[in-house]
Amino acid sequence: MREPLIPVVPMSHTAHIRSHRKPRRNASTLAMRTGVAGGVLSTLAVAGAAGSANAAEPVTQTLELPTLTADLATQLAQSAEVTQQAAANYELQAERDAAAAKAAQQAKADLADAKKKAEAKKKAEAARKAAAAEAASRSAERTVLSSSDSPSASTSTSSNVSAPASGNVATVIAFLKAQVGDAYVMGGTGPNAWDCSGLVQAAFKQVGVDLPRVSGDQSTAGTPVSLSNLEVGDILYWGSAGSAYHVGVYIGDGQYLDAANPSKGVVIQDLSGYPATGAVRVL
Hints:
283 residues, alpha+beta, endopeptidase fold (from Nostoc punctiforme), six-stranded antiparallel β-sheet, two-stranded parallel sheet, 6 helices
């Protein structure tokens, strides 16, 4: 039995050559590109719709604040510097005004103190002149009494004893009274504050008498005298001779002057209110 014949199709003379045509895209690739294209078109449609909607609404403008420029920043810095300098100038002027006020106050106080001292000096000079006349009178009286008692004794006294310089006691008392009202300060030696021995030392220095600085030494600096025979200018002391704790000066009429204490200052007091222990005479 014969096999059926299969017709032979003649091949093209180019069949053995690879085709230059691009291969066809498969279905999945075409579907993907179709989807992308559809998405783009959808987006454009949405955007168009939004644009149309926005076109129907009023446009709102946004205002931006101006940016701080370099020139404006420089001006602000200069303004701050000027303000700071003005404040410093005001502070300096205030300090100068305060210093000037303090100086004026001090000058006023110094002037008042100078006037006080000048007045005290004037009074002391007047008292010195008055005391000079009194001393001359007392000296003459003593001479007369000595002559009447014993002529020989008078000659001896005149040759061996010299009377204090005229007005010494009055000068001491005038100086002391000029300090009345001054403050008491422990260790004070003037001119406006004293302790008891500092005041006594300064008073007798006015007539050239150099007394020791402290009360104990001043209580033995002169000739001891009894309290019943006191004379103006005698130094009074409280406590034992050589270790006294306070001194003052007898000014007559049962009174004495001293730098008492911080609460009283320099005052005149009655001897009966605070009797002294003893007294010495240096003039």
